[in-house]
Amino acid sequence: MTRVRYARLAAAIYCSMLIGQGRADESAPPAVRPNVILILADDLGVNDLGCYGRRDHQTPHLDQLASEGVRFACAYTAQPICSPSRAALMTGKAPARLHLTNFLPGRPDAPSQRLLQPRIEGQLPLEETTVAELLQQAGYATGLFGKWHLGGPGFGPEKQGFETAVSPPANTPPTLADGGKGEGAITAAAEEFIAAHRNEPFFCYVAHNNPHIPLAAAPELVAEHGDAFHPVYAAMIETLDDSVGRLMKHVDDLGLSERTIFIFTSDNGGLHVLESPGTPATHNTPFRAGKGYLYEGGLREPLLIRWPGVAAAGSVCESPVVLTDLVPTILAAAGIDVATTVGPLDGVSMIGLLRGEPLPPRQLYWHFPNYTNQGSRPASAIREGEWKLVEQLEDASVELFDLANDPSETMNLAAANPDRVDDLRRKLHAWRDRMGAQMPTTNPDFDAALHRRLYIEQDPSRLPPETTAAATGPNWKAWRTAMNKVREGAEPAVTPAAGDIRLHARDAIVHAKTMRYEAEPHKNVLGYWTDPADWAEWEFDVPEAGEYEVEIQQGCGDGSGGALVAVEVGGERFEFTVQETGHFQQMILRTIGQVKLAAGRQRLAIKPQTKPGPAVMDVRRVVLRPIALP
């Protein structure tokens, strides 16, 4: 069997979109609010579909969707791993801002790591406003069908704006009717929801488990794909495609196609390494690496959008976008004013792009301070124009790539472009500061020999695929065994689902002349803090004595940063300097210290010490998070 080759489809039309007889203002509610069907695959690679050039996979329905809408040739995920990319897709916020940067519950620390990972959120906090909540408040019926992966009991989709949530088993006995990843049950539940709400606007989020490991598909389909790079994976892609085709036909049969936005994408790049029996699942040629990596193979996603009357059929958009952009896009399509409902988001609306107007130039950023099961190491990245810089957090080394001429990221041009490296690194570091990004710390138990064996001697980011998955896997068995062994018995570093103490702005006792609680939906803060003598406090109960981490959520507009603020709790006093975040409602999370608290009634106070700018800051919440309990 010859190696599968890919040819990039020529962009016949550059973001060419159909424009109607007049154009409504983007902020004005549309005459008919469109339905939205958002379909998310799980670990689907950017080149796994026929419409993106794959020749050993059969995807006629998705190819049809591309022919009836826009195919984005350069769409990026917000994070190349599942949970944070899903959190960004739900909130429109960067994973670095959310402190949810790795899959849940995350990979435990190990001696093979040069760095210790930061403690990430163990679930999407309920205080975060999702696109489903905003659509529900605007009169949309909302439903999720399939995978959530943003928290367990108490943090599920029904707590985040989904009035209907159906999550069939992720792994099912593979049959033609049901698939091997619950595709049949997920699709049937979505069809029932669409039919039940066909006379009102609806948001239908279909989050498939396909093609995540363990790989499974009907034996009859597997037999038909014997010549594919991975026959089982190819059969799974056909099942996924059939499921999308069912929803397309269902919407058409109900007469809803003309007022329904259809969006198809994936959470992260395809799995290109050996991770479980029967893998690697795919490869992302010509792009480097895959799931878990900040290289193009891990970040690039298929993105198809069909919107009759807005997006020209068969058009191709080369403009770089990020999936965080989908939240403001969906909200704008529904006539929801983001500024007065949720406040600043990290994504931007693509409505103008869909109308044929180029997006203003911008940088795209990623921050991944974690280690993954796929063998990646902590890194950050920035893309500006055709240039991309990747900074390795273990040693601060950088790689600079010219994506226009080297999409495979094989040539590090950093040494030849020191001025460009300095400029991009400066912008990347400034962005991390404005995000309140968590950083890893030195690992005192670091084993250099083990690190060299797992990350240097065999660099998984440069794993070359053989002609088939079966031929690729054996070369990495020893590496996989060692990667699995180093994490045995260890626990991941995530915040607990229960036990933390959350002090909300609305519950504060205010001692102030001007500072007050601002209840508007896009605020929900202690704001108007123009007098440094103003202060706030909370009284609360500590259920169990122990050591608690103190985290404050603060926002600060440009020109107002630098205030020195004291936090008093448990007989301790912590001081921090307010960071500018670009906007007073552009919130970041700051860990300012650790305190031992006795059980019972306690008090926490926030008292500004200085105010060099027009205002101190806005505060949305304080969290006391248990890190050591008896």
Automatic annotation (TrEMBL):
The gene name reads atsA_22
Question: Has UniProt tagged this entry with the keyword Calcium?
Answer: yes
User: What domain of life?
Assistant: Bacteria
What PROSITE patterns does this protein's entry cite?
Answer: SULFATASE_1
> Could you state a single Gene Ontology molecular function term?
arylsulfatase activity
What's the protein name?
Answer: Arylsulfatase
Q: Which cofactor does it need?
A: Ca(2+)
The similarity comment for this entry is: Belongs to the sulfatase family.
Describe the location of the Sulfatase N-terminal domain by residue ranges: 34-336
| EC nos | 3.1.6.1
Pfam families reported for this sequence: Sulfatase
Keyword Isomerase set for record? no
What sort of enzyme, by top EC class, is this? Answer: hydrolase
Keywords, alphabetical: Calcium, Hydrolase, Metal-binding, Signal
